[in-house]
Task: inverse folding
């Protein structure tokens, strides 16, 4: 079973990068906050400070999630990092960050940059007349990966990942069986 993971924006604060800090530390060609392609950041990475704020204009006393998808990457809280590090590390890069919110003191976490790319099943995956993904299927069940079929925007995981997140009660993610869209 493969799932597309998406973020629970209603119950949790949203990850915010400081654009100036990203440019200062990583350069103008490495805008991790908006670039989804599977490029390596580890050789140039300098620990970033990220914040969590209310993105939907709701109350700001929401908690920081343990996990959150952002531009084809996965934020991991300190707790999520301790739980998932060994499982996901072979599939990408764990990039250290310090995270905080108005209600929570700074803590150490990471941004997981998935570098494993899996091709979509070309016979069953389709796009509509606007070039948007209409259906998406894979012939493999890697732990965590991206695909060029959706321009690397989505993050996909297998049942093992889902079971560990669920049994560890890690917050913030929605597991979708419909792989074509991150909404609905």
Result:
């Amino acid at each position: 079973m493969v799932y597309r993971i998406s973020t629970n924006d209603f119950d949790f604060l949203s990850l915010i990068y400081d654009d100036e800090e990203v440019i200062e530390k990583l350069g103008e060609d490495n805008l991790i906050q908006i670039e989804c392609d599977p490029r390596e950041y580890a050789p140039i990475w300098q620990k970033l400070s990220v914040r969590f704020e209310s993105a939907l204009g709701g109350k700001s006393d929401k908690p920081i999630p343990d996990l959150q998808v952002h531009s084809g990457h996965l934020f991991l809280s300190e707790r999520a990092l301790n739980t998932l590090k060994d499982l996901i590390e072979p599939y990408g890069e764990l990039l250290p960050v310090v995270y905080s919110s108005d209600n929570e003191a700074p803590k150490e976490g990471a941004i997981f940059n998935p570098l494993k790319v899996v091709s979509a099943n070309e016979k069953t995956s389709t796009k509509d007349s606007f070039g948007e993904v209409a259906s998406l299927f894979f012939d493999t069940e890697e732990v965590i990966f991206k695909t060029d079929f959706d321009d690397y925007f989505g993050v996909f995981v297998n049942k093992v990942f889902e079971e560990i997140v669920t049994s560890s009660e890690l917050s913030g993610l929605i597991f979708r069986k419909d792989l074509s869209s991150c909404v609905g």
About this structure: Residues 78-88 form the longest helix (11 residues). The helical segments are 19-26, 78-88, 159-167.
